[in-house]
Structures are given as C-alpha cells and as structure tokens.
C-alpha cells in the first residue's frame, strides 16, 4: 500500500494575506484512488495551534466558561457573543503551560494541573490549527484575579460559572454553540467525570 503522503505533490503557494494571521493559496497535485493525478487549489488559514480547557468543580457540580465577542459568528447572523471554554494559541509554549496561563488570563483561576483528553482539527477544510483539549478541576481558593483577558490584544472576556446540568441544557437550547466547548462538556458527561 502506498504512503498517503506520496499522494500529494505541492506545486506552489501564494500568500494572500498576512495581517491578523496567514492566509495562503496552495496549488497541488492529488493522486486519486483510481490512479489519476488531479491538479487542485485550496486556501488555508494558518493561525498556529491552540489549546482549550474546561474548568470543573465536582463538589459544586459546576463549570467555568467565558463569554466573549467573536466577529466571524457575528458575521454569520449571530449576536457574536459566545459562551466558551477558555482557549488560546500556543505562542511557542507547550500546550500544558499555555493553557494554564490562558485559564488564568481569561477566568482568573490559577490552575496547578491539567489533564489532556484529546487533540482535534476543528475546521480542517480551511484552517491548519490543531487544538489540544484539557480539563482541570478548580476550587474557589484558586481565584487570583478578575480574568477578563488581555486588553492590548482586544480581549474583553466575561467569566461565567454555570451548573453542569445547566451547561448541558444550554447546548440543547442553542445557548452554547461553540464546538470545543460542546466537545468538552460532552466529554465530562460521557466519561462520568461529574
């Protein structure tokens, strides 16, 4: 059997935009299953890899999420304010180190340890990002600040503590529509963590 990588021949790439992140157009030859080569072109948005964490408290049966404005959601007939698990780009740190820092920046909770649960490509048809998924227990005495994100980066993040059952219900009611958050909440439910 032929290696999957030998089915792709990169021909060219062209930078379309390098403003917020990098958008490139790639031309490549693709070896189809029937043995024919086909020339294709696709655009790919490269923003780097990221990490996300769902903070949970077993005793209180609660989770900590953040609410923030997302322009792409707004542009797609939504008010743009999404309820999400804390997340951020790796910025040359390990996924574990970055997500601990991100959790504190966004939620105000200083988390000592995180548990990695899986990795996933969230929109592999157009975005190169691979997301590292974590869960972490939090307790009230770990709250060290207000959170809110980094103003210089345009962040204005609200911390939201929800009952776990309320969070699951919010998925059904369409109040939580962020994929990474849905995946992490369902992970807690399916694995019996809560």
Structural account:
- The structure is a single chain.
- This protein has helices at residues 71-75, 95-107, 164-172, 179-190, and strands spanning 8-18, 22-31, 37-46, 50-57, 62-69, 81-84, 86-89, 115-121, 130-137, 158-163.
- It has four helices and ten strands, in the order βββββαββαβββαα.
- It is 20% helix and 39% strand.
- It has 194 residues and is of the alpha+beta class.
- The model has no long low-confidence stretch (mean pLDDT 93).
- The chain is elongated and about 60 Å long.
For this entry, give a set of tags.
10 strands, single chain, 194 residues, 39% strand, 3-stranded antiparallel beta sheet, 20% helix, 4 helices, 7-stranded mixed beta sheet, alpha+beta, elongated
Summarize the structure.
With 194 residues, the chain is an alpha+beta fold. Helix content is 20%, strand content 39%. A hairpin with a 5-residue loop joins strand 2 (22-31) and strand 3 (37-46).
Count of discrete alpha- or pi-helical segments spanning 4 or more residues:
4
Alpha-carbon Rg, integer: 19 Å
Q: How big a fraction of the residues is strand?
A: 35-45%
Proportion in helices: 10-25%
Q: Alpha-carbon distance between the termini?
A: 44 Å
Task: Reconstruct the topology from this structure.
Layout: E1 8-18, E2 22-31, E3 37-46, E4 50-57, E5 62-69, H1 71-75, E6 81-84, E7 86-89, H2 95-107, E8 115-121, E9 130-137, E10 158-163, H3 164-172, H4 179-190
Parallel strand pairs: 4-9
Antiparallel strand pairs: 1-2, 2-3, 4-5, 4-7, 5-6, 5-10, 8-9
